[in-house]
Amino acid sequence: MSTVTSANFDLPPERWWRSRTARRFRRHRLAMFGVVMIAMLTIACVFGPYVLPYDQLFIDLRARFAPPMTGGHIFGTDPLGRDVAARLFHAGRISLLVGFCAMLISTVIGTVIGVLSGYYGGRVDAVLMRSTDAFLSFPSIFLLLALAAFIRPDPLMITVIIAVTTWMEVARIVSTEVRSLRERDFILAARMLGLSNRWIMFRELLPNAIGPIIVAATLTVARAILLEAYVSFLGYGIQPPLPSWGNMLNGAQQYLGSAPWLAIVPGIAITLAVTSFNFIGDGLRDALDARSDLG
Amino acid sequence: MLRYIVGRIGQSLLLLFLVSIIGYFVLLLAPGGPMSQFALTPGISKQDLDRIAEQMGLNRPIIVQYADWLWHLLQGDWGASFRDNRPVLTVILDHLPATLLLMGTAAAIAMTLGVCIGILGAVRRYSIFDYVATVGAMIALSVPTFWFGLIAIYVFSLNLGWFPAGNMYTIGSGSVGDVLWHLVLPASVLALVDVAIWSRYMRTATLDVINQDFIKTARAKGLSPRRVLFKHVVGNALLPMITLAGLQVPALLGGALVTETVFTWPGMGRLFLDSLGYNDYPVVMGLLMFSAVLVLIGNLLADLVSAFVDPRIRLA
Questions:
Q1: pLDDT, tens digit, 9 for 90 and up, residues A261-271
Q2: Cis bond leading into A241, ω under 30°?
Q3: Which of B208, B241, B255, B262 is the most exposed place for a label (fewest CB within 10 A)?
């Protein structure tokens, strides 16, 4: 490969952000909206708590249920008089981090299983893919809740549990991709060079399947944030006093009539984050698909 | 055809076996285990705990416990609830109708709306309607179902007062109309995500069919556009939707769990959460298995129906 690159010495090396793929991505309006939105959310969650006048744990019983935009509380206060905005940003740190880390673990599990099953085929493939199907037969919330309820989790365990219930899509995608790549000439060449199976799988096949993996990983972040919100809302996820977008909504239903902002504010944060990741994933899929230049 | 059906059923049974292994071991290997419930009793001694473990067979090797559990499962003995000692299967079947009613209504709403939006989006491709439907679907896929439920209760129940905020019927009434009135909000909330999915798939399927040769032939024959659309395009585009209906069962079940919680709907999802709260292992395990069985039945039915409708599948 290196000889091919050096033969083009009089062309400037192509930077990835100038590639056709990157250009297609930048032209995808919804994806760019997603990127900007995630950047803003991340900045707000990281720096927001330093800017706001109230600490997320500061309890002020005289200021319970203050509506938004009163007394310096942008998003109002909760039943204990804590500032909702401060809690929202702290919760965002946790929810986004859990979503991102769960995606990393889930993508690694899914990729390894997918590569193994796609490369070896036969019995290995049958066992791994039937197991994947079996995991897919549980509605993921049921499995997730059962695990979360019995393990009594901390944020790390929640992340792992979410990963354990979301790796299947990636495994399927990678397996299909690897199965089609396996028959290509460059793999035959690698075999003839006597490269080890491990080298072929992770140094030859995997880089060529990276596009679909990135798309699936992006969509998995969205799913993981949603799942964290579901379990935390139902009381089995991130435990108070640690805030997360999901557990902020946990008590909100009983105050729906008197303090609707308790339900509205965190819900909008979740929806914005999840929508943005879904938009980015969609944009990446279109950008990585070379055919979309024609259409 | 018979060979296809038998093969497909065999596959489902194999999957069910794998599902039972995963479900059983995942729960048993979790720290705490079924004994943790009894260890909470104040003043219980080590001897008492050992005796309970002995009586319930929890001190045997896990493989033996699993085989025993599976054997009883196959005979319809799903164990007894830790909470009130009623048979697990009876408890689940008590809660099944409410969930099926909710899921069925939501699925019907989602299919009708989703198919119509999908067809319209494909026919008027790149129109404003298509764009709004596409973006709307992606946002709908990103809204947490429980939050949409909360907002729906806030708007339609607390502020407008059109629908009740929860429960399946008014105490003391329970007529069909009353149940339907209670069904509107939760079913619509549950349907939202599905409308999005159905409309996306239907749009793609319709576009696939529109570009095929036999549609050009039909147009060339001089058939009216309406006739081509409804007779040739829609009929063929609906074929892959049968499989989709099967694939949607897990999402619907999961969504039902959350929707039932928000709307205090007395179905399987509520039962699942209540049982988790009581550490009621047999019921949780039973529900986990039961939901997987529903999912597999859904997929199997969908495959059999599409094989029945489409000879290309059963002959391949």
A1: 888 889 999 99
A2: yes
A3: B208
Check if the beta carbon of residue A43 is closer than 8 Å to that of residue A278: no
Per the CB < 8 A criterion, the answer to whether B193 and B140 are in contact is yes
The answer to whether A270 and A225 are in contact (CB under 8 A) is: yes
CA dihedral A143, B152, B94, A134 (to 10 degrees): -20
d(CA B253, CA B187): 12
Q: How many CB atoms lie within 10 A of CB B203?
A: 25
Per-position pLDDT tens, chain A of length 295: 444 444 445 556 667 777 778 888 888 888 899 999 999 999 988 887 787 777 777 777 776 777 777 777 777 777 777 878 888 888 899 999 999 999 999 999 999 999 999 999 889 999 999 899 999 888 888 888 888 887 767 889 899 999 999 999 999 999 999 988 888 888 889 988 988 888 888 888 888 888 889 999 999 999 999 999 999 998 888 888 888 898 888 878 888 777 788 888 899 999 999 999 999 998 898 888 766 554 4
Among B139, B153, B288, select the one facing A142 at the smallest CB separation.
B288
How many whole angstroms separate alpha carbon A214 and alpha carbon B148?
29
ipTM confidence score? 0.84
* Cβ atoms A246, A228 nearer than 8 A: yes
Residue of A131, A137, A258 to mutate, testing the B interface (most B Cβ within 10 Å of its Cβ): A137
Chain B neighbors of A280, CB-CB under 8 A: none
Contacts of A236 in chain B (CB under 8 A): 276
Question: Which pair of tokens denotes residue A49?
Answer: 């708590």
SS3 for A260?
Answer: coil
Cross-strand pairs, B87: B80
Whole-number CA gyration radius for chain A = 23
pTM of the model: 0.87
* Dihedral sign of CA atoms A185, A189, A192, A196 in order: negative
Indicate the burial class of A276 (C-beta count within 10 angstroms; 0-12, 13-18, 19 or more). Answer: buried
Q: What single letter denotes the amino acid at residue A9?
A: F
B187 touches A: beta carbon within 8 Å: no
CA neighbor of A111 nearest in space, from A128, A123, A136: A128
Query: What residue type is B2 in one-letter code?
Result: L
Q: Are B276 and A146 in contact (CB < 8 Å)?
A: yes
The residue with tokens 């927001």 is A48
**Tokens standing for A121?**
């085929």
